[in-house]
Amino acid sequence: MASLKFSHSNGNPFAVTRHVTPRSTWPTRIGFKIFASDNHSEPDLSVCVNGLQMPNPFVIGSGPPGTNYTVMKRAFDEGWGAVIAKTVSLDAAKVINVTPRYARLRAGANGSAKGQIIGWENIELISDRPLETMLKEFKQLKKEYPDRILIASIMEEYNKAGWEELIDRVEQTGIDAIEVNFSCPHGMPERKMGAAVGQDCALLEEVCGWINAKATVPVWAKMTPNITDITMPARVALSSGCEGVAAINTIMSVMGISLDTLRPEPCVEGYSTPGGYSCKAVHPIALAKVMSIAKMMKSEFNDKDYSLSGIGGVETGGDAAEFILLGANTVQVCTGVMMHGYGLVKKLCEELKDFMKKHNFKSIEDFRGVSLQYFTTHTDLVRRQQEAIRERKAIKKGLQSDKEWTGDGFVKETESMVSN
């Protein structure tokens, strides 16, 4: 297994030195949670991810939907495949949230209150509940739901002992896996937390080394989209021992400015701060990031040994199918639950099954990554189209050069070159 070493030599945080670290030398952290399955004609939504068996690929993403025992229990009762709890750290006392902390973007003229919600910004921090309280609730959930998958999301300051203590304490509760928050775009970057690590590959490799030397359960690294090339930190995380990556966390944003008060939203005592953007509007961006990571994993790693969790604007089974077609093993939902409730999982499962029936897919693996093969370069697109034109000979579809545009037929000529 090729891994990467990053240093800050010559002021370049992305300087790369390759060396080989055999995966056989890493700790074995594969879980063995097994569900009995019934033989029936319906498509099988169950997935096995890093040895963890889930009844479906739908996972509660880290955030408010996994903030305490009551809501996580509700998620299991409704049938979610797994739950990732809200991110915890050793000292919750330094986490102080404000209200209001959300702002919404609606479609329609001037953000009409009747328009569909397409964007959601939050300035929320990680869990503000004492770690001991969260740990007790993890333990209680695993006692009540021993065969369900509970994943702890963790984030700590740049301190090896702190990371090791946090991992040890969450693992003692019986959680099945760990997702490391290397991606929160706001809150305490001065402490080298969240995206401050995920955006610095040298720092990321060092912290991943601490984490993977300590952890005994599968580890997922949650990636930030607020970076030029998301494959760089994803590659570092996998090379440093993580079993999977999750992408994307929210996109840094300013939701808007009130044209009445001239103040930004969400507005707290007249002021605001940039926050994380989620919901339907980020879905295309998330798909592009997941596609890039999946292609990298396929070409540089044995993707059957690693996992990819897709996140971003999932509200329908079709949204989820797109992530899976691009190589995701699981699909996380956070803002969607905040908008539609925990019962959303039933709709997601039914719609995903409908998609699978339409294409005669029997399992998730039947179509996972199928669409990756259809991405190429623009140069290759030109070559393919020229070959197709030569083959068709008699009929051309769409204009072939700018000189062919006409004023009278402009709209129809535009339509002739649209693919969907």
UniProtKB/TrEMBL annotation:
<dbReference type="GO" id="GO:0002058">
    <property type="term" value="F:uracil binding"/>
</dbReference>
<dbReference type="GO" id="GO:0005737">
    <property type="term" value="C:cytoplasm"/>
</dbReference>
<protein>
    <recommendedName>
        <fullName>dihydropyrimidine dehydrogenase (NADP(+))</fullName>
        <ecNumber>1.3.1.2</ecNumber>
    </recommendedName>
</protein>
<dbReference type="GO" id="GO:0019483">
    <property type="term" value="P:beta-alanine biosynthetic process"/>
</dbReference>
<keyword id="KW-0560">Oxidoreductase</keyword>
<dbReference type="InterPro" id="IPR013785">
    <property type="entry name" value="Aldolase_TIM"/>
</dbReference>
<comment type="pathway">
    <text>Amino-acid biosynthesis; beta-alanine biosynthesis.</text>
</comment>
<dbReference type="GO" id="GO:0006210">
    <property type="term" value="P:thymine catabolic process"/>
</dbReference>
<feature type="domain" description="Dihydroorotate dehydrogenase catalytic">
    <location>
        <begin position="45"/>
        <end position="356"/>
    </location>
</feature>
<dbReference type="GO" id="GO:0050661">
    <property type="term" value="F:NADP binding"/>
</dbReference>
<dbReference type="Pfam" id="PF01180">
    <property type="entry name" value="DHO_dh"/>
</dbReference>
<dbReference type="InterPro" id="IPR005720">
    <property type="entry name" value="Dihydroorotate_DH_cat"/>
</dbReference>
<dbReference type="GO" id="GO:0017113">
    <property type="term" value="F:dihydropyrimidine dehydrogenase (NADP+) activity"/>
</dbReference>
<dbReference type="GO" id="GO:0006212">
    <property type="term" value="P:uracil catabolic process"/>
</dbReference>
